[in-house]
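Good morning C.,

I know you're traveling, so I'll keep this short. The sequence:
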Amino acid sequence: MAITALGGAGGYGVGLLTAVDRSAAAAGTAAPLGAIRTSTSTPSTTPSPTSTPRVIQPDNSPPLDASELRYKTRSFDVEYVYKSQVSARVPANWNMTRPDPPRTARFTDPTGKRWIRVEAGFTIQRPPAASMEARILELNRLPKDQMLKYISSTVEGNYATLVYTYVPPASLAPVATVRYVIVRWVADESGLCAVEMSSTGLPQDKKALMTVIDKAASSVVRRDSPLDSSEKPS
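The tokens, ready to paste straight into the viewer:
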């Protein structure tokens, strides 16, 4: 199976697999910001500890300049339910890293402050709008000290795009710096989500981060092959 994602409208804070039942949300045309819902889950009977507010330390680095970025097509394999061969155009000098097991690929700029993450290998079974709604439900569970703030959510053509800011937990980022995140879910020809990607950086990078994710989303290709039964996750 091969898919090419085409179109043009669009990070990463908390990971969420895209393989969830399609009934999570309707495909529909557009989820304006007002449609972002707070969590309605029943509170735990065990009180959670109160998070100590963190003092924000602004990072006043010069903004990422989109005009200075040069792109090339990068290819890689990711594995989850399927082995996916993925290619996309990303900044040429951003370094690729992958976790073990390699469910995603991440391309990080030389400063280590900006990156784009690409995920595939999951089952293609729900539209981008449903994937976005599932991510919103996960984000709504973040501790208050991560200071989540939604910027926008849209569904357009083959894409659903969620934009937000947050502060990573102290365990990952001892210095409390706001991160700007753009997450995009890209549909294949069936209209279902085949690739998830996110572009992350500083608030002053937002225009360049959108350019980076637009380039990747409009060029991404996923080709699947089955994993050996012994390699499939339990």
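Safe travels,
E.
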